[in-house]
């Protein structure tokens, strides 16, 4: 009979510990706390082991019964611990997911989209026209010597033509080039006596000028063709092709006599106004024509000074203002607008 009383008492203790354990586990807030509770319940000097100590006082026939009772408790507590641990892992996962959440419906980060500068647009188009008829592109230094900028171009010291091309001097002999023409001499020196020589030279040029149609820095494209039996007719053909590709199929060109020290004869070239078609408007100042470049047959002095024999070969050359072409092409009336970097203007060239 005393067995029954003992068993009842023990059952009660084990149940109490079970309830206690369930409560302790439920109250933990994170897995570290849960670890501490686990030790308190199942550790060496934990509650379960304390219960098992009773075993020593039990009658032999009660021991297996008690052992099993305690085992069931251990299983139950272990199950509760695992469930709680699982709960914490799950919660942690959810909070990471929440923290890393991406809202796919938010608008993306817009990247500002740039556009080509009108001068670059014009330059690229001009280059591709000349590339299309067999010219190659060469480029040269913007800081130039007096020799290449002037003397090799048949403009000796004290020549009055220097007056129109005052520039920025670095030393008595070094200057910012006033035109792309010095590359005529540099290219001929490099390739002489090979023919045919057919190049264009795009690049920056500088002069001491500033008004609505002049800026201290501007862009030119030089053209040079050296071969046997080159004539003004070849020049005219190339320039007419350029004018029509650039400004429209119906364009005509007109050559007027002019003077440049490095060409003989020299011409200035006009295209028929692409705005009014030649009848006269504000753009062409009522003349029907717009001046676009200077050109001529390469002067024998220039050929000779750069390594070609003027008795054997001759050539033509031309110099085109890229900014002026851009202004005409895009309808700008102040050249300076190209270089003030006003984003509102540049954005219109997307
Ligand atoms: N270099 C001249 C200037 O800047 C333009 C020019 C005229 C270039 C006639 C040429 C040419 O090659 O033949 O004013």
Strands, total number: 9
Largest beta-sheet characterization: 7 strands, mixed
Q: SSE order in H/E notation? A: HHHHHEEHEHEEHEEEHEHH
Ligands and ions found = 3,4-dihydroxyphenylalanine
Write the layout of secondary structure elements.
Blueprint: H1 2-27, H2 31-42, H3 47-53, H4 63-99, H5 118-132, E1 136-137, E2 143-145, H6 146-149, E3 174-176, H7 182-191, E4 197-206, E5 217-227, H8 232-247, E6 253-260, E7 263-272, E8 289-298, H9 300-305, E9 314-321, H10 322-330, H11 343-347
Parallel strand pairs: 1-4
Antiparallel strand pairs: 2-3, 4-5, 5-9, 6-7, 7-8, 8-9
Bound molecules: 3,4-dihydroxyphenylalanine (DAH).
Can you walk through the features of this model?
There is one protein chain. By secondary structure, the chain is of the alpha+beta class. The model has no long low-confidence stretch (mean pLDDT 93). The strands form two sheets. It has a seven-stranded mixed β-sheet with strand order 1-4-5-9-8-7-6, with helices on both faces. It is built from eleven helices and nine strands. Helix content is 42%, strand content 19%. The protein starts with a helix and ends with a helix. It has helices spanning 2-27, 31-42, 47-53, 63-99, 118-132, 146-149, 182-191, 232-247, 300-305, 322-330, 343-347; strands spanning 136-137, 143-145, 174-176, 197-206, 217-227, 253-260, 263-272, 289-298, 314-321. The longest helix has 37 residues, at 63-99. Bound molecules: 3,4-dihydroxyphenylalanine (DAH). 3,4-dihydroxyphenylalanine binds at residues 179, 181, 222, 260, 263, 294-296, 317-319.
């Amino acid at each position: 009979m005393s067995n029954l009383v003992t068993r009842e008492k023990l059952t009660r203790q084990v149940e109490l510990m079970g309830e206690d354990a369930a409560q302790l586990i439920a109250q933990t807030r994170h897995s570290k706390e849960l670890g501490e509770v686990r030790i308190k319940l199942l550790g060496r000097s934990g509650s379960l082991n304390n219960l098992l100590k009773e075993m020593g006082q039990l009658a032999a026939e009660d021991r297996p019964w008690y052992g099993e009772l305690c085992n069931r408790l251990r299983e139950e507590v272990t199950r509760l611990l695992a469930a709680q641990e699982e709960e914490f892992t799950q919660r942690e996962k959810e909070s990471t997911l929440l923290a890393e959440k991406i809202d796919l419906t938010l608008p993306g980060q817009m990247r500002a989209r740039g556009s080509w500068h009108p001068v670059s647009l014009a330059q690229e188009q001009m280059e591709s026209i000349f590339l299309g008829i067999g010219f190659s592109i060469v480029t040269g230094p913007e800081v130039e010597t007096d020799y290449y900028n002037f003397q090799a171009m048949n403009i000796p010291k004290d020549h009055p033509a220097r007056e129109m091309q005052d520039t920025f001097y670095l030393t008595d002999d070094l200057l910012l080039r006033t035109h792309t023409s010095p590359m005529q001499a540099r290219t001929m020196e490099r390739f002489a006596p090979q023919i045919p020589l057919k190049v264009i030279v795009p690049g920056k040029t500088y002069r001491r000028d500033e008004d609505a149609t002049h800026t201290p820095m501007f862009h030119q494209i030089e053209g040079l063709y050296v071969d046997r039996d080159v004539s003004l007719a070849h020049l005219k053909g190339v320039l007419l092709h350029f004018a029509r590709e650039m400004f429209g199929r119906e364009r005509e060109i007109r050559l007027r006599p002019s003077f440049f020290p490095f060409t003989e004869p020299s011409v200035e070239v006009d295209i028929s106004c692409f705005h009014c078609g030649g009848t006269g408007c504000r753009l062409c100042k009522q003349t029907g024509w717009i001046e676009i470049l200077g050109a001529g047959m390469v002067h024998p002095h220039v050929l000779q000074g750069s390594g070609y024999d003027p008795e054997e070969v001759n050539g033509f050359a031309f110099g085109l203002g890229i900014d002026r072409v851009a202004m005409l092409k895009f309808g700008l009336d102040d050249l300076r607008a190209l270089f003030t970097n006003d984003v509102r203007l540049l954005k219109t060239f997307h």
